[in-house]
Amino acid sequence: MKPAIIRNGEQPGESETERAARLIRRAGARATPARVRVLRLLRSAPTALSHHEIEQSLGDLALDRVTLYRVLDWLVATGLAHRNADTRRTFRFSAASGSEHSAHSHFRCDGCGRVFCLDAAPPPPPRLPEGFLLSRIELDLRGRCAQCAGGAQ
């Protein structure tokens, strides 16, 4: 029997719900139903979501507002999710790349305000002055998404 190939810590035959729960436990916390639902949603979303969009997407499984804020804050603090403000100053949340805290770039649409996570990593950091300590790099590209641009180049 050939051994299964495991990539990025994924387990063969693992569902998205099981994967979200495993990532939460790996962060050293209980995989509560609320945390699992929200992380699973963020991992499946094609763009970063606002608090309201997350509430709407959870539908019948929606959490009360305070619980949702706490879950989102926890996911960001543990590095399982990113929080960024869009062009309208609304916080939007996305799963961290591979659900590990890694640097990545964003495309922010000036038309609709959506934020898209890009696979491209930000450029290397510039040389910092003596004693400076870099905590993170963010690269935000701005323009119009395909939908708002109407297919124009």
UniProtKB/TrEMBL annotation:
Keywords: DNA-binding, Metal-binding, Repressor, Transcription, Transcription regulation, Zinc. One of its GO terms (molecular function) is zinc ion binding. It comes from Candidatus Accumulibacter adjunctus. Zn(2+) binds at C109, C112, C145, C148. GO terms for biological process: negative regulation of DNA-templated transcription; regulation of secondary metabolite biosynthetic process. Pfam families: FUR (PF01475). SUPFAM superfamilies: Winged helix' DNA-binding domain. Binds 1 zinc ion per subunit. Its cofactor is Zn(2+). Signal peptide: none annotated. This is Zinc uptake transcriptional repressor. Belongs to the Fur family.
